[in-house]
Amino acid sequence: MVDARKLLKALRDGQPIPSKEGEAYLHPKVNSAIDPALRAVEKALGLNPSRTHDVFWITGDPGKGKTQSLWQFMLRVQSLGASGKSVLAHLKLDDDSATRTLPGVVSALVTTCLADGLKAEIEDVRKAILRGSQVDPVVKQTVSFGIDLASGLTGIPSPSLFAVAGIRKFLTWRRRRERHIRRKLGERWSSDPDFLSLLCAWVGYLLRPTREMKQKFKTTLRQLQEPARLFRMFCYALEQAEYSTLIVVLDEVDKEALAALKTLWDPSDSERNEYYNDLNQVFILASLEEVWMAAQGDRKLERRLCRTEHGHGRLEEVEINPNSTMDDVTYVVEKVSSILSTTSYLRRQGVDLQNEIVQLRHELSVAGGVTWQDIWERVIDLMADLS
Questions:
Q1: Greatest CA separation for the chain
Q2: Cα(53)–Cα(33) distance, rounded to whole angstroms?
Q3: What's the rounded Cα separation, in Å, for the pair 126 and 7?
Q4: Hey, what's the torsion of the CAs at 246, 80, 153, 109, to 10 degrees?
């Protein structure tokens, strides 16, 4: 059960909340925008790699719920019961201007992919790799993905691939393991030096997830030169490791980033068979409405990014009616009341709630540019004492 105080603080501050609570408390306007994308992911995971390419847009002005929708999407993807293996990458493109370029976005996708639902033995290997290291959850997930990828690409189960004289002695024999894995990769992929270089660089970072090794890995990615080719190479590697689906969530997509994304949908050369793959791909793009309109107005972008059925979810303006209680202020008041109904100790005392809500509604109605977070923050501060 989620702690009510933490839930209220997260809603007030616009932070991620668990998927079940998101479905229960966030407005259907926020949740409905991601439903078609979730259905597409579930369908893709139920298939073998079959080259399905779906692109979903979530658009709206700042503060209308795009980021919260994306958080809910990622949380709910993890709870899907489909059997296929997937990789989930989430990038916020305004965090680093380099990710708005094709080389930057491809490099970021490759280095930030996360794998969910991995086998228990992979967790054992990961614990051995990271024993004594202070790393965040993203690094742990990335290492898990690397283990699974290396295992799939060598065709050797992960415990056999990584263990030497027992998993407890792994760190002592790490260099020997790296040589062993590189040799196994070389036996299978020696005819393709670029692909082998990518895999060996990944394994080096996998076994030693330090800043230095991550930088070496990024350097290898840059040396592969053609970003679109690197993307196809990465998708090919995923398919070879028995993944069916790549899920990419991109927040704060702007017009500059669209040009970078366009070439990712260019088909691989099936005649040359250069990294041709049938990996299923589902992209979710969150942007301002004007970015979506720009994509629709460009023939090449429209063909690549705007033709998925039910592929556009527009988050509407919040509704505030000073002359009625049938609006979004009432929705938030009712949800906060529901949370406080079982946690009366959090309820703020000495407040004429009915009168205060009337005044708040009038104030917000004339303010202009009100966001969902504005309403949650004002209502929670009025109704709850979280000090």
A1: 76
A2: 19
A3: 31
A4: 30
Q: What is the DSSP string of 186-197?
A: HHHHTT-HHHHH
Q: Could you give the CA distance from residue 29 to residue 48 in angstroms, rounded to a whole number?
A: 33
Instruction: Report the alpha-carbon distance of residue 258 to residue 229 in Å, rounded.
Output: 18
Pure H helices in the chain: 4-13, 19-25, 28-32, 35-45, 66-78, 102-112, 120-130, 137-154, 158-162, 174-189, 193-207, 211-223, 227-240, 255-262, 289-296, 299-305, 328-340, 353-367, 372-383
How big is the chain by its Cα radius of gyration, in Å? 24
Chain Cα centroid distance, residue 224? 25
pLDDT in tens, 315-352: 888 888 888 788 999 999 999 999 998 888 899 988 88
Length of the chain in terms of residues written: 387
Between CA 278 and CA 244 the distance in angstroms is 8
Share of the chain above pLDDT 70, in %: 73
**Is-contact 335 25, C-beta < 8 A?**
yes
* Residue 172 banded pLDDT, cuts 50, 70, 90: very low
pTM above 0.85, yes or no: no
Asked if residues 195 and 233 have their Cβ atoms less than 8 Å apart, the reply is yes
Contacts of 383 (CB under 8 A, 6+ apart): 333, 336, 337, 340, 347, 348, 351, 353
CA distance 12 to 9: 5
Q: Taking Cα atoms as reference points, which of 280, 288, 202, 224 lies closest to residue 248?
A: 280
Tokens at 68, concatenated: 């919260």
